Amino acid sequence: MLKRTRSLVCLCVSAALVAPSISANSIELPDIGTTASSTLTIDQELIYGDAYMRMLRSSQPIVNDPVLNEYVSNLGHRLVANADDVKTPFTFFMIRDRNINAFAFFGGYIALHSGLFLHAQSESELASVVAHEIAHVTQRHLARSMEDQARRSPATLAALAGSLLLAIASPQAGMAAITATTAGSMQGTINYTRSNEKEADRFGIATLAKAGFEPKAMPRFFGRLADEYRYASTPPPMLLTHPLPEDRITDSRARAQNYPEPRVQPSLDYNLARARIVARYAGIQAKAAQDWFERTEQKADPSIKVAFQYGKALVHLDNNELEEADKILRELLSRDRNNHFYLDAMSDLYIAQKKPELAQSMLEKAMAATPNNAVITINYANVLIKREKNEEAIRVLQRYTHDYSNDVNGWHLLSEANIHLGRSDEDLAARAEILALKANWNKAIQYYTQASQLAELGSLKQARYDARIDQLMVQRERFLALQ
């Protein structure tokens, strides 16, 4: 489904990530169209973005890892805070896929493949990819591309919108519709996206510099990718959607040289996230992961060597080698007691050791230091359930799902806690929310209807369920109206 979605999304986000060599401080852009107001409003883009995201949740291996989500979100919002023309909220998420790729779509959604972490050698290199995708959103390139096609073919915009939803019910038919819609204007699209890529490069490098990252990281990362896969018969998806001819890389290098070169220290958080991905999301055997940590640690900067110890601890933990994991994690926590990567792993270790009371005590101290933090709160709720404190867990999770309603982790745990207490109606309601996040509207409404039937007639709980049914029906109709 991701490839099908990208076929639509990447009408505007395909080509290279570099730009002409002009003064870095005077971004004079080509005339590539209007602000897209005649095609889609910002509110409409948000509706489309929400639809895309629900499609992806239902079809792709979204990484629902609280620690990695926090890292990616923090990195993304650091860049957004230094970007120009921000008009929408931003959501950053990961897809478990070893292929190197990233893409942006309506409503400020930016997806990163986990494979990016395996090839980016520094946080600045990863940030260069994110900054480029942010620029695609802030400059509204997808809406502009659709506007450009609509100007040349009045039926294009409506056909593209219909194809998007058709792809949900019938992937092959949806893909055929998208292809038929765009084939007649492909050359115009190619010319248009080249301009979009130039603009995204310019704004991306500027954002990198303002956010304190290395501007040269963008041409360095993509230049290395181009060299590595120059003669590959099957290049990674990023090079298919973001081709890298040499002149663009050269121009990018020239542009980056116009910015001061900051002294950027190796990022511990980036290397902890990278180690977590190698240990849990790279699809490699435990021995191969341990060997990678050993080799990489030997040549790493001393300030980040602990990240590879952390990775080794995760491999031990996941293979039930609890004594080895315990030794490493205790040492790491003694150095940095509020580190969320370490706290999350130690919480899992205590549970595996059948000592959830120690995890609860540890996490309560962490909550005092960082109240309402998503990583700490979701771990705390999980520990409460393991201790059979389900009532308390439900109170925590009710707040959590209110604050983080798009996080399926909270709804899964809320379902689990209610099952333990025999509350079938609340279990059904929690599972309905997960279904709604995946655009399975009919099943979600069915579950809420069953929950309402189980609730006491005329009770506030039944009224809450019925009100939610009405909301879901409105969301379903809005979703289907995109056709």
From TrEMBL:
Cited CDD domains: M48C_bepA_like
Domain (Peptidase M48): residue spans on this chain: 69-253
Localization per record: Periplasm
E.C. code: 3.4.-.-
Transmembrane segments: none
InterPro entries associated with the record: Mito/Outer_Membr_Metalloprot, Peptidase_M48, Protease_BepA, TPR-like_helical_dom_sf, TPR_rpt
Pfam family, one: TPR_19
Catalytic residues in the record: 133, 201 (proton donor)
Signal peptide: 1-26
UniProt family annotation: Belongs to the peptidase M48 family. BepA subfamily.
Function: Functions as both a chaperone and a metalloprotease. Maintains the integrity of the outer membrane by promoting either the assembly or the elimination of outer membrane proteins, depending on their folding state.
Name recorded for this polypeptide: Putative beta-barrel assembly-enhancing protease
